[in-house]
């Protein structure tokens, strides 16, 4: 007699009186596996098939992982990070999705192949490896695979650290070539030491009790920057300029009509001012052309470090570890004395 606690075991009495047993494997159409007429042997086979079915692991491929990551994880990132990861995910889908690669079959040699595939763009290649590694760790958390992360131990490309320090002369040349919106935004970026996206998000509502409150979009780090000295003068200048516009908004970085300055408009204005400054200052042309707006964060770090030390620079930039600041932002080198 088939017991109630033996799911999938089916008994089929025949006209001859013999009972044949079957394993119900499910599916559409339903599939039944014959187990014979010997009850003891049938139960033994049923147990083997039940165990095999229970231990079968769903094969998950990279495209399935990519779809879930894009749906569940990417919206939690900062907008700028989302844009970068969407672009990188297209490359990863192309590499691991034609045909779809099962996660359990991806090996370190394939990660090396990914890097070599983008060897002419080493920065992009390293970024793709980092994103893949992060996604694979998520796959392990979600139970998609129990395999070791194949990116572990695979070295990316060695990249030269950006060593451009923006001197006061280069800053002044571009600043003078720009209009008021660019000048105000350059000053705001330098004096606060924040990323361009965070600078563009700053509003008057962020000024509380003599502090400019910063909630960094990339890391979530929070900083309170004292409104004093040149920063206080800048904020007063911005408010005076905004008062002359018919349209008023709370953003600190605004265009000539008083509307919030966008990243695209800032980039266009900066490039135009940089080109004009390079043409007007031939002796500084190379240094000016190497200047990008994001270099102001590194300039702020260097200048604060020279004055108050590396920890002060790390505090301003929102780094928990001063080594992060030293490794990625301090470009001038430590000030030392001569032997004699």
From TrEMBL:
It holds the Pfam family Phage_integrase. InterPro entries: CB (IPR044068), DNA_brk_join_enz (IPR011010), Integrase-like_cat_sf (IPR013762), Integrase_catalytic (IPR002104), Integrase_recombinase_N (IPR010998). GO terms for biological process: DNA integration; DNA recombination. Residues 161-340 form the Tyr recombinase domain. One of its GO terms (molecular function) is DNA binding. Residues 60-140 form the Core-binding (CB) domain. The keyword Lipoprotein does not apply. Gene3D superfamilies: 1.10.150.130, Intergrase catalytic core. Keywords: DNA integration, DNA recombination, DNA-binding. This is Site-specific recombinase XerD. It comes from Xylophilus ampelinus.
